[in-house]
Amino acid sequence: MLGLPGSISVLGGVPITAQTLGVMLAGAVLGARLGALALAVLLALVAVGLPLLSGGTGGLGVFLGPSAGYLAGWVLGAAAVGCIVHLGGRRPTAVRTAVAMLVGGIAVVYAVGIPVQSLVTRLPLAQTAYTSLVFLPGDLLKAAIATAIVMTLVRGYPRAFRRASGWTTAPRDVAGSTAP
Fold first, then answer.
1. Would you say residue 33 lies in a domain?
2. Among 80, 103, 136, 159, which has the highest number of CB atoms less than 10 A from its own CB?
3. Which segments cross the bilayer (predicted)?
C-alpha cells in the first residue's frame, strides 16, 4: 500500500495515494510496536535510496522536502493506531478501530506533517493547515476502508490479533518468563 506507484486525482487534481491506508493497516494489524517498526524500516530503506514511496521516489531528498513531517508522522501514527485498536489487550471493535484510524492515521500524521511542511515551505502554519484540508476527504475514506478491512480480518482470523496488542508480542507471567 505504501509504495503503490499510482494515485487518483480528485478535487481539482490533488493526488490521493494509498499511503496513509498502509500506515493505518500497519498499526492495526501488526500492533503498535511492530507497526511502528515496520514503518521505520520502510523509511530507512527509502533513506538509502530504494524507490518505495508512491510514484517510485526514494533517497534522502524526500526527508528534506515538504512531506518529511508526514513521513515521520507515519511511524507515530502507526503506533497510535496500534495502541488504540488493541487498547488493554482486548479484541478490536469497530468503534475503537474507527477512532484509531481517525486519531492515529489522520490526526497524528497531520499533527507532525503540517508543521514541518509549514517550516519547509516557509508558509504560515494556518495557511498550510488550511491547504492540507483538501486531503481530508480522501483520508476519511481511507480510514473507513481500513476499519472495514481490519474488522473483516478480526472476524476471519481472530487468533491473529491476540499477539498484536500493545507494545509486547507475547504475554509474560508473574516470574517474567514468556508464556507459551
1. yes
2. 80
3. 6-30, 37-56, 68-87, 99-120, 140-157
CA distances (Å), origin 1, targets 17, 31, 74, 110 = 9, 17, 13, 19
Find, among 95, 79, 99, 82, the residue nearest to 165 by Cα.
82
Question: How far is the C-alpha of 78 from the C-alpha of 24, rounded, in Å?
Answer: 6
Which residues are registered as beta bridge partners of 10?
14
Whether residue 4 is contained in a domain is answered as no
CA distances from 149 to 9, 56, 138, 142, 156 (A): 23, 25, 16, 10, 10
**CATH number for the domain harbouring residue 51:** 1.10.1760.20
In sequence order, which residues have a C-beta less than 8 Å from that of residue 173 and are 6 or more positions away? Answer: 179
Provide the residue range defining the domain that includes 56: 16-161
Task: Look up the pTM and report it.
Answer: 0.84
As a whole number of angstroms, the distance between CA 102 and CA 142 comes to 10
Residue 9 lies in a domain: no
* pLDDT tens digit sequence for 130-161: 999 999 999 999 999 999 999 999 999 988 87
Q: Is residue 180 part of a domain?
A: no
